[in-house]
Design goal:
The complex is a heterodimer of chains A (266) and B (486). Chain A is α+β, with helices and mostly antiparallel strands. Chain A is built from 4 helices and 13 strands. Chain A has a 13-stranded antiparallel β-sheet with strand order 6-5-4-3-2-1-13-12-11-10-9-8-7. Chain A is globular, with a radius of gyration of 23 Å. Chain B has 486 residues and is mainly beta. Chain B is 12% helix and 52% strand. In chain B, the strands form 2 sheets. Chain B has an 18-stranded antiparallel beta barrel. In chain B, strands 8-12-11-15-16 form a 5-stranded mixed β-sheet, with helices on one face. The longest helix of chain B has 22 residues. The chains are: A alpha+beta (266), B mainly beta (486). Chains A and B meet through β6 of A and β13, β14 and β17 of B.
Chain lengths: 266, 486
């Protein structure tokens, strides 16, 4: 009887435990071997899902702590299509914002002014421009595929966190020369991003810290890890912008027809 | 009293309509609106006349009746605030003591996927905005002008119409049907408005040292409300290589009156004292408008261009000048085709400063010919120097103007304040003195809380006599506006 119990349960259990331990060791050692660029490829920042919908609250906070709140419904598909409709405050409610072919040379941006019943084409190429008067740029609101524009060097890990130093690739048109990323090892969500730009001081060029992005309240929704709170701080202006995402849904099969002027004007 | 009763009835019906939105197929109704106060004081010369003293309540109701049917209505209730009772009866009449105005701004139904999935229908009183330029849209001809607010030049009044839009990939086809003609709403200072220079003649003559007295009778003729006088338009839009293009066609009536017939009797014992009797007929010519526009951006700079070619149908101007130094002068000229266009660009700097520039050829009311210019030419031809001297009372004549408009705005202190400056110049590109007139509109806005705005501004117009802005120089004013949106 004892021999039977051993054969049927204990040995298989031991084998499974050993395999699991081995796998964990393999994973840990593989992570230890990963280069900065390899880790950067796994960073998850709204770029995994085919499409997403959410309700977003944007809070602008000045150095005195005064806040301005805007609320909007957001639809996104891939890296190239975004539709935003403001729901609060009342004076901009109904105003819509459409981005087509974002991140491509043929990018088009439109704003729907409900008071005038008119859709206006707006200049979309100035990606460094502030998005809706916030500290996020249009670039920040688009694709977060850092691996396409930066080369990453792995710095010393912190507990459960990868630390990466990103330098802009030669042909990249991104605004910032260098970034420093703190990435959760578990979720691969960036926890903190520091944005540096080159500043000329005399004959020398030095890196100057311009903005800091921090994320919070990461959740796993439909299999994707997503930070639901983003805070962007403009270091020089001492101004912050907070984005809070609610009712996040992914891969619901959004139709391309949503990202059209027809839908923008509804 | 009657007006106030009608007002109450209209409000009651409107509230009933709005409440019935929610009972219609268990639809949800989204109510929003605004409360606004608008104070304006004239600042021309020594006058401090209060021009506006208005409080406005605007109510908007939107209902999603089903997945593909929605309804929208917008009502404005305005307390006009300037009392003018002059009799005991009027003192007992609320409409005289506290005049009000009720405007059903828009009321329409949207059907998405009308018969076919790619077709949308919008039916009712609606604003149909065509053209890519900012406010200065020569191709925006479906709705008539609303000139009641001088601070909102280029404003249009929604009208009853049917709009059908079909979507084929990147291409949109739109068809519009407008059953009846609606004229432009003219401003309360119409008598001094550039579209009716008859009333500027006395001022113009005085400047020339001429003592001119006038007796004017004006008559307006509108296209009858027959189906044969309905208007229609069509538009095709598509994007090519990142630029939006559209081509449009309109067949209807010009919403601004055209002085078609003028019968002038002049009694001039000498060139310093002239008595003029005028009978003028103003009509609304039938027009065809072919429009083209484009919009795009180039390295962060937005650009657009809009052009409209207008073909008046059987439009003419007839002149009958009687007793001019014992002579009768008559003449007829046809209103020829004309073209108007606007080109512009805008840019937003990284610090938030926004600049918008537009060049406009052809102001809202301008056409290829004007009757007064015709009268001057005829008088000079027939009477030589005497005719030329007398013709001064008709002003310099009007032609299609060239204007440049620039505006800039920027927000400060976490969007709590906004400073905006808008300016325009009436140009004479073929003359040594290039600028005939100007308009300047600076303002500062304060946003104390969400959806709340307080604006203090100023409007200044000036220019040579008989020019657009010169004839409106009495309209200089300071304004203070409060607005809360909910």
């Amino acid at each position: 009887m004892k021999k039977l119990v051993l054969k049927k349960f204990v040995i298989p259990l031991l084998v499974i435990t050993l395999v699991g331990l081995l796998a964990a060791v393999v994973v840990v050692s593989k992570e230890k071997e990963m280069t900065g660029n390899e880790i950067l490829k796994t960073v998850a920042f709204f770029n995994q899902a085919k499409d997403q919908t959410s309700k977003m609250t944007m809070i602008l906070i000045d150095k005195n702590g005064d806040e301005i709140r805007k609320e909007m419904d957001v639809w996104g598909k891939g890296d190239h299509m975004r539709l935003i409709k403001f729901t609060y405050p009342a004076d901009i409610k109904g105003t819509g914002f459409l981005v087509q072919d974002a991140d491509l040379d043929t990018e088009k941006m439109y704003i729907y002014l409900s008071a005038f019943k008119k859709t206006k084409r707006i200049a979309g190429s100035a990606k460094g421009e502030s998005f809706m008067e916030s500290d996020f740029s249009y670039d920040d609101m688009g694709s977060f595929r850092y691996d396409e524009h930066y080369d990453a060097k792995r710095l010393k890990d912190k507990e459960g966190i990868f630390v990466l130093e990103l330098k802009k690739k030669e042909k990249s048109e991104k605004e910032f020369e260098q970034l420093v990323l703190w990435v959760s090892m578990e979720s691969r969500v960036p926890l903190r991003v520091e944005f540096y730009d080159l500043k000329k001081i005399g004959k020398e060029e030095k890196l100057e810290l311009k903005k800091i992005l921090t994320t919070d309240n990461a959740k796993k929704i439909s299999g994707y890890w997503i930070p639901t709170v983003l805070v962007m701080e403009d270091v020089k202006k001492k101004h912050m912008s907070k984005l809070i995402f609610k009712d996040l849904k992914f891969d619901t099969g959004l139709s391309d027809s949503i990202f059209t002027e027809r839908y923008l004007e509804r | 009293m009657k007006t106030f009763k009608s007002f109450l009835v209209l409000v009651s019906i409107s509230m009933l309509l709005i409440s019935s939105f929610s009972s219609l197929a268990m639809a949800s109704v989204d109510l929003s609106g605004f409360i606004e106060m608008d104070e304006r004081a004239r600042t021309s010369g020594t006058s401090d006349e209060l021009r506006w003293n208005r409080a406005i309540f605007g109510l908007k109701a939107k209902s999603q009746i089903s997945l593909n049917v929605a309804a929208y209505a917008e009502l404005h209730l305005k307390s006009l605030g300037l009392s003018s009772p002059s009799t005991a009866d009027e003192l007992a009449d609320t409409a005289s003591v506290q005049p009000v105005d009720v405007e059903l701004r828009e009321a329409y139904i949207d059907v998405y996927g009308f018969i076919f999935d790619n077709v949308d229908l919008k039916a009712g009183k609606q604003r149909i905005a065509w053209g890519t330029a900012d406010r200065l849209n020569p191709t925006d001809v479906i709705n008539p002008y609303d000139f009641t607010d001088i601070l909102k030049l280029g404003e249009k009044a929604p009208t009853n119409s049917l709009k059908l839009a079909s979507y084929f990939g990147d291409t949109t086809l739109t068809g519009v049907f407008v059953p009846t003609f609606t004229p432009a709403i003219m401003p309360d200072f119409y008598l001094a408005m550039y579209t009716n220079p008859l009333y500027n003649m006395e001022k113009g003559a005085a400047k020339q040292g001429i003592n001119l007295t006038m007796d004017v009778k004006e008559k307006f003729e509108y296209p009858p409300n027959d189906l044969s006088n309905s208007m229609f338009g069509a538009k095709v839009e598509r994007n090519f290589f990142g630029i939006d293009f559209s081509l449009s066609y309109f067949n209807g009536y010009d919403s601004i009156p055209n002085m078609t017939d003028i019968d002038v009797i002049i009694d001039a014992p000498n060139l310093q004292n002239i008595d003029v009797s005028i009978e003028a007929l103003q009509t609304y010519p039938k027009i065809e408008v072919v429009g083209f526009d484009l919009a795009g951006d180039f390295y962060g700079i937005g650009f657009w261009a809009e052009v409209a070619h207008v073909r008046p149908e059987n439009a003419y101007q007839q002149l009958y000048l009687d007793h001019i130094q014992g002579t009768t002068i008559t003449g007829t000229q046809e209103v020829a085709d004309y073209t108007k266009f606007t080109v512009g660009f805008d840019y937003k700097f990284l610090n938030g400063l926004y600049i918008n520039t537009q060049f406009m050829h052809g102001f809202f009311d301008e056409r290829s010919t004007d009757l007064f210019g015709f009268a001057k030419r005829m008088m000079k031809e027939e009477l030589g120097d005497v005719g030329e001297a007398l013709g001064v009372m008709f002003g310099t004549g009007m032609s299609i103007s060239d204007m440049l408009f620039i505006s800039a705005d920027q927000k400060f202190f976490n969007e709590k304040f906004k400073i905006e400056v808008a300016a325009g110049w009436d140009l004479a590109l073929d003359q040594e003195k290039n600028i005939k007139g100007h308009i300047l509109k600076p303002s500062i806005s304060y946003y104390p809380a969400d959806a709340t705005e307080i604006t203090l501004g100023f409007l200044a117009l000036d220019g040579d006599d008989w020019t657009k802005f010169g004839m409106m120089r009495d309209q200089d004013q300071a304004y203070l506006q409060f607005k809360y949106s909910f």
